[in-house]
Amino acid sequence: MPEPTDIPSFAASQLNLLDAELKAELSETNALLSSHTPTALARAGLAILNLNVSSIRTGLGGKTVVELGLDPAVVTKGDKADIPEHGIRVGDIVALQDQPAGSAKKTEKRELAVKGVEGVVLRVKREVVEILLNKEDADVPSTGKLWLVKLANDVTYKRMNQTMSRMQKLEDHEYTPFMRVLFGQDSPSPLPPDLNDPSNPLHNLEWNDPSLNDSQKEAIRFALASREISLIHGPPGTGKTHTLIELILQMLKQKLRLLVCGPSNISVDNIVERLAAHKVSMIRLGHPARLLPSVLNHSLDVLTKTSDAAALVRDVRKEMDDKQSSIRKTRNARERRQVYADLKELRKEYREREKGCVNNLVHGSKVVLATLHGAGGFHLRGQEFDVVIVDEASQALEAQCWVPLLWVKASKLVLAGDHLQLPPTIKSLNSKHAKPAQQSKQDAIKSTGEEDNKAGSSVKRAAASTTLETTLFDRLLELHGPSIKRMLTTQYRMHETIMRFPSNELYESKLIAADFVKDRLLKDLPYQIEDTDDTREAVVFFDTQGGDFGEKTEDEEMKKGGKKVSLGDSKCNQAEAALVAMHVNKLVKAGVKAEDIAVVTPYNAQVRRISPMHDIVPA
Ligand SMILES: Nc1ncnc2c1ncn2[C@@H]1O[C@H](COP(=O)(O)OP(=O)(O)OP(=O)(O)O)[C@@H](O)[C@H]1O
């Protein structure tokens, strides 16, 4: 079994790796912004030109929300004022700035991040875009044309850095027993010896979902019985989330308080939606702009408006909105200054009332859901939870998982994921071999020695030589072995033949196909489909070797407008595209509905090749 990990050197190593990763991300975005004009960026979907402020209001936290629409001067009379197609999405970080006039527009580039005001995109509609400004006293350019450009997002890095810095500084006596287990300095508490015995009370659970299969039930019993950590290993389609929902319901029955997280908003919303079906009372933390509409009723933002305590907050909000709109009508500078001063006072008052309301709501909630990143916000700092549950844990960087684990008080962790699928995307290429990692390994070795001497400890601790690709799930498995994990083995998504390859190659042939999918074929779809060579097979392979199947590299944005905007290269293969189109045509001819067919390719250039060959709508 590997040696225990030294915590400060682990944190130091992570800080170095995160730094390299952030640099890679920033340099990619900055290179793009500094070498293109606003017009070119707009053409590439990274900017919107010719905007005007259409209204200003107060959002959560007393921050300013600016609504932008197209400048009427650029809209042809009688046409709709639709904003031209763009790639700016809710949650993106953007800068809003004055648009350089006339020909300057073509030459203006550089230092985009420094100019204008920064904010987060709150809403994107056909005719308007809403931005929540980051700085509360930001002065919005209120006259003339504005343009909006997407910036690099370093917010998640800041929080991971903050978390790892805190971990690095913790003294030996501050490590909780739970934390020691997570670094292999202690072993997980043994499971009850009779866990597999039908006499154990966990074998008499009342299931909310009677359709759970045996491997799911066993994983739930195991997670309930574990004291510090349990991993639920769910290969594709085996019902990881399904199992977590039942686990959450069982834990709530035991009156436990839970913090449920995932690496992305969609992973968290997926759980909120499924828990809502069981009428669980819960709070979803997070920027309302990034939440699915269906979960908004559980969001803190909405609850602070609809709960009883919310009336107090509403009064101040109304007053602030009135002031905001009065600024736009005030031409006189002295009056404007006075309104800004009043707004500042109101904002203070608003924040205090809102804090009271939020505290009541969050404290009183038995289940709080947030992204890993969001769980590090001030709402949860120092709060006690019995269990932290992380879904899609193999998609999260380890530093991300530590955000909830270090900022709240918790003594048990359940991770659900699949370490055999792709790890989170890392941009600092070859980070396994990159200098920072090497460097940090040396730092780690040095600091291990110092630490041990200082503590007079005889424990030989391993230097932290992890990479960013090593997830917490991976590391814990390596540290404590398979006894901390239970695997879900029945999959509900694939025909047995499709399943066979991943099962044999990755999952020790342990996967079983559920009855209702194991021999499901296209010809059996519940509408009229011809029985052909293509519809009676679950998988068809095309051998493209030997033919003229040359791969081409194409500039990603060549086709955006007349000008060339380079956003990197993408690959395509004309002959393979033709083959795909031919196969799709055959399926459609046999009666398969086009909307039931998905074509997947990792390259944009290939999507562009294939789409015109058929009525395939690119996603
Ligand atoms: N015991 C069960 N009986 C019937 N259907 C089930 C069962 N468990 C899961 N499913 C179904 O299997 C599918 C996959 O479930 P779920 O989305 O929870 O899996 P997952 O492992 O989280 O998926 P992914 O592979 O996307 O991570 C869903 O359609 C779900 O309803």
From TrEMBL:
Residue ranges of the Helicase ATP-binding domain?
A: 208-501
Q: Give the main localization category.
A: cytoplasm
Q: Which residues cross the membrane?
A: none
Superkingdom per UniProt: Eukaryota
The top EC class, named as a word, is hydrolase
What terms describe the molecular function in GO for this protein? 5'-3' DNA helicase activity; ATP binding; hydrolase activity; RNA binding
- This chain's protein is named DNA helicase
Q: What organism, scientifically named, is this protein from?
A: Periconia digitata
